[in-house]
Structures are given as C-alpha cells and as structure tokens.
Amino acid sequence: MQISTRLSQLSQEQIVFGAAVLLSVIFLFTVPGFDTIGNFSQILERVTVVGILALGASIVVIGGGLDLSQVASAMAGSGLAVLLMNTGWPISTSLLVGLLVCVAIGVINGYIIAYIEIPAFFATLATNLVIFGVARVLLFKSTFRLYLDDAVADSPFFVFLSARVFAIPVSTLLFIALVLILYLLLRHTTVGRTLYAIGDNSRTARENGVPVRLYTIFKYTFCAIFGYIAGIVFLSTIHNIDAGVMIGTMIFDVILIVVLGGVSLVGGRGTPFSVLLGAILIGLLLNGMTLLDLNNDLQDVARGLVLLAAIVIDNRLHPRNEETARKGE
Amino acid sequence: MRYILASLIAILGCSASIPASAQLKDAPHEQWAKDVEGKSVVYIPVSLSLPLMNIWKDELEIRAKEANIEFTTLDPNLDVQKQNQMIASLIPKKPDVIIVHNPDRQALARILKQANKAGIYVIQINMGSTYASDAFIGVDAYNLGSKMGKAAAEVCLAPDAPSKNLAIVTGSLVSQFSIDQMNGMLSEIEKHPELNVVTKQVVNWDPKTDFDKVSTIVDAHKDLCAILDEYDGEAIGAARALERAGLTGKTKLISAGAGGEFACKYAENGQIYKNFSYQAKEQAIQFMTIAQYLMQSGLKPGSVTTTIYTPSIEISKDTLKDAGCQ
Fold first, then answer.
1. Are the beta carbons of B216 and A242 separated by less than 8 Å?
2. Mean per-residue pLDDT for A250-262?
3. Cβ contact, residue pair A162, B244, below 8 Å
4. Does residue B8 carry a pLDDT above 80?
5. Which residue in chain B has the smallest CA separation from A246?
6. Is B211 within 8 Å of A238 when comparing Cβ atoms?
7. What angle do CA B92, B105, B204 make, to 5 degrees?
8. Where residue B30 falls among pLDDT bands split at 50, 70, 90?
9. What is the pTM of this model?
10. Do residues A304 and A80 make contact, with C-beta atoms less than 8 angstroms apart?
11. pLDDT band, very low/low/confident/very high, at A321 (cuts 50, 70, 90)
12. If I label A22, which of A53, A118, B33, B290 is the partner at 20 to 30 A Cα–Cα?
C-alpha cells in the first residue's frame, strides 16, 4: 500500500529516469559490449535526430496541439537546401532558404489551425500529404533520395557537425544545448509560461487577454524550425535526405518520445528534460536490443509496449476530471 | 536551276517532317508497327521509394517512348493491398502488358492469373510468384547472395583478416528476395565453420537505420572482417558508419544493388569493397524487349512461360573498367 502511494507521488519524469537507470543496470550485466564509452555515445547519437524533432513537437504539445507534418517539413526544407548547395549556392544561403521554407510551413499550419479552426490532427495530416506531394514534384523528381555532393559533405560545416568532442558527437551536444535553450525559453520567459497556460486551458487564457491565435502560429513555427535543425543533423549523419522518411514512421517515434517523457498530449505539462529522458530511454532500448540481436519486429513490439506503458502511467498520474471531462485537472 | 534547287529543298523538307519509323516500308517493320505502336504497358513496382525501381521506371519510359508505346507507372508505395487493387482495376481496362514487381511469392499470384485470363500479358520482374505468368525476368537472389557470401569468405579467411567474425544486414524479414539472398549468403559462409556470424540485423531498407545499427555493431565488434549488406541503397548508411568509426577498408563492406553511377562511386572511393550489381538499367531494357516480343508473338496470354535470369556483375576498385564505371 505504502509502495503504491509512493509510486503515485512520483512524476512521470522520475519514473522514466528510474526505468532508464534500471534498464542500464540490466544491460550492463547481460549485454556484451554495452559498457563502453563508445556505446554510450552511440545511445545518444541514435536518438539525436528524433530527439531534436521531439523537442520541437513538445512545444506544440505543451501548447495543446499536435503536428503530424513536422518530419515532412524537415525533409522538404533540408532537401531544398541540398539541391541548392549541390548547384553551387553558398552553404549559409542554402541553409537559410531551407529554413525559410520550414518557417513558411509552420506559419501556414498555425494559420489553418488558429484562424480557419481546423483541428490540429486533420490540418497537419493534410499539410503532411501536401508537403510530400509538392516535394516529390519539385525536389525529389526521379529519386527518393537527394545525396550531398562530396565537396559539400567535406565542407567545414558538415565535417564539424558530424565530428566528435571527447567521443560525444557534436550533433548530440547540439541536442543537449537545444534542451537547455528550450528549457530557459519555456520556464523563464513570459512567452514560455503563456504557452503552458494556453495548453492548460486555452479558453481561460483567451479570456485573460492572451492572443491565443498568434501563439498558435508561434508554436507551429518553432516546431518546424526545430524540425529543420533535425533535418540538417540527419543530413550531416548520412549525407542524404530521404523522401521516404516523410511518409514513414519517424513521426510516431517523435510522439513516442514526447509522451514517454511526460509531455502530456492534453497540453500544459512537461519540460524539455522530459523529452531528453524519453529519448535516452528509447535510445537505451534500441541499443540493447540491437546488441542482443533482436529483430526489427520485436524492437517495434518493445517500442509499442513502452508507448502503451507511458500512456497508462500518464492516465494514472493525471486522471480525467469528472466535472470538466479534461484529464489531469 | 533555281527550280531544281527549290524542288530538292521541298523534298528534303518533306522527308524531314516524316517520322523515321514511317520511312521504313519493309514487312517486318510494318508488322512491328502494327503489333507494338500505340499499345499500352503498365509498370507496377512494389514502391517508387527505392532507387532500383526508379531506375527501372526511367529506362522503361525511355524505351516505351522510342517504340511509341503508351506507358503508365502505378505506385502502391509498399502497400500490398493497394498493389492488388491496382492490378484488379486494370483488368477491365485491359492494357496489353503489365510489368509487375512482386512483394513476395504469394501476394499477387491470384490476381496475376486473372489478368492473364483476361488477355493481358504479365511480366514478373526480380521476384517471381507461385503463378507462372508469361515471363519472369530478374536476378537470381539466391545466386546473388552466394556471390556475396563467397566474397566475404575470401576476405575473412585471408591471413591479414582482422578476425573471422562477420555481420549480416538485411532489408526485410518478410521479403522473399531478402530471404533467398540471405540463404545464398549463408550457404557459402556455412561451408567454413571457422567463420562466425556475430549478428544479423534488419533495417527495412533504410540507410539511417542501417547507419544506427552498424554504428552500434562496430563499436561492440571492432574486429569484424566483413559486413554483408543486402542492398546498396541501405548500405550507404553502413558505409558512413564504418567511415565514422575509422574502419573503412578494414572491415570490408560487401553489398548488391542496381549498379550505375552510384555503385561506381562507392566502389571507387573504397567505401563498398564489392558490390554485386544486377544492372537495373539493362534489366529494364530486357523487360521492354520481352514486352515487345509478347505483343508480337500472337501467343495467348498465360499459355507459355519464359524465365530469364539476368546476370550480375562485380563492381569493385579492381573491376571499375570492366563494370563500365570508367
């Protein structure tokens, strides 16, 4: 009885942290090759792209929304940047143009949801398909993959982004830096605190004079910007951009990490550290399962079970309020 | 004189405006034009999301245009159900030829039989099915895997090999092509009991997943003598992982794929030690050649079966010239 009471007092972040520590200890004793510095760096590197995407997605989810088009937007912006760089445009200009495309997609998403009042799920599902179609016609014409020219891949920018500092990939350090920046933005600025207020109860926020619609555009734009950064990290890792990713399952991995860490899908709850913890737990799982030689299907089963467990825990920690029919009130 | 010159120019002008095909009046050409020109060919790959199927599509388009064949591509995007429905919806429209890439041996067998019965020629490519239609043309996946396994055994049994441990990366657990190819690899590796397969990973033909998994594997097994990676489209991830681990050339990456410029580049820079190419472009030419043959044959669709295994060639630093890379 006491144990269950104590468990219910724990936050989801604490539970995920505990699970990560427990899993590490189990793997330490059961998985050969797990206890090397290189392997710990692998764990983080493996979830860097999806972790940065999840940071962006968490901004939207904390503010009470959902963006299913984030991965497509990231690949489209990065794909355009690849094309421009390969045709001789300066890297900085190409990256800026790609970024502007993602910003435009974010603004459009926000506008459709805030002003035309289409539910976020349907709006971003539709824009995801539009982005994929347009990208196929304009960017990925006769191929699903855009390769970075060797000269561009060997440029100082991409060499730096794929380098390691004391065995830790620069891209992973970037992920951790983004966690800190986003934490400061969300917890220590008016904008961040307002976003939590909107996510918690948008009607009350509006009645108190908060420009909720503008904030909606803001959060989808930031989500797209984080997505674009993830896209460039993806590019620096394997030197190509894959259109197949736009319609693949990466967006579900993003949502898995967001939910797992404790960013509740009803909004107003969670921090960037929740996302970092969720990413580390998934990284640990994938790493251990690869070293144990488990096949992809079993890995998918494990990921599905973890997501289910996270939703159940979220439900138990934040039960539905019978008066307002909202979870966690 | 001026009159003669003007007449000559007029004649030349007229002949220039006549299509080249119409200028030939020999009997075979007339028969060919009657049987082939204006006919319809529909190409249905498993998905256009992989480079191999795009190479086929591009080449088929070129060949169809040359022969004035009406060419259409339908993309089920890895959805077997959709692929089945696409073929079903084609039956009443009755195109002359369907060129189809099976996802496995069972999924489309019944609908392909129906298409044949409805009077449509069916050419199955790279992956056969339990139904033998008019033609199967493609690479022998088992043989391809055997070549890869043999190459791995060679490098791993060499005196300077870092160890006798190797890893296998495959595209899918359920694709019959992957299963056949894997069996081919293992048939050669198992001839040498001293060779040890430390891991078999599945990466869903995704280079990023390949990168992630191979990065983890080579960190745990730094002494691998070879990695057998089923498909070069995904193996670029493994190549990058080896490069980042400083193992390019030490751990030999052996793969297979569509060939072309891409394969040449990776062989030339040593990132893929040996790549067994089934020459997708040449395969597509053969697909269209068989399609034209069937249209002219007068055979009843489904009455005769032809099987053609297309050759695969080795692309490596040593064979760049022979493989047409230089």
1. no
2. 87
3. yes
4. no
5. B49
6. yes
7. 105
8. confident
9. 0.82
10. no
11. low
12. A53
Give residue A123's pLDDT band: very low, low, confident or very high (50, 70, 90): very high
Q: Does B281 touch chain A (CB under 8 A)?
A: no
- 3-state secondary structure string across chain B: CHHHHHHHHHHHHHHHHCCHHHHCCCHHHHHHHHHHCCCEEEEECCCCCCHHHHHHHHHHHHHHHHCCCEEEECCCCCCHHHHHHHHHHHCCCCCCEEEECCCCCCCCHHHHHHHHHCCCEEEEECCCCCCCCCEEEECCHHHHHHHHHHHHHHHHHCCCCCCCEEEEEECCCCCHHHHHHHHHHHHHHCCCCCCEEEEEEECCCCHHHHHHHHHHHHHHCCCCCEEEECCHHHHHHHHHHHHHCCCECCEEEEEEECCCHHHHHHHHCCCCCEEEECCHHHHHHHHHHHHHHHHHHCCCCCCCCEEEECCCEEECHHHCCCCCCC
Which residues does chain B have within 8 Å of residue A49's beta carbon, measured at their own beta carbons? 208
Joined together, the tokens standing for residue B27 give 């009997």
Burial bucket for residue A117 (CB in 10 Å: 0-12, 13-18, 19+): exposed
> Across residues A287-307, what is the average pLDDT?
82
Render pLDDT for A42-66 as a digit per residue (tens, 0 to 9).
888 889 999 999 999 999 999 999 9
Q: Which of B324 and A271 is assigned the larger pLDDT?
A: A271
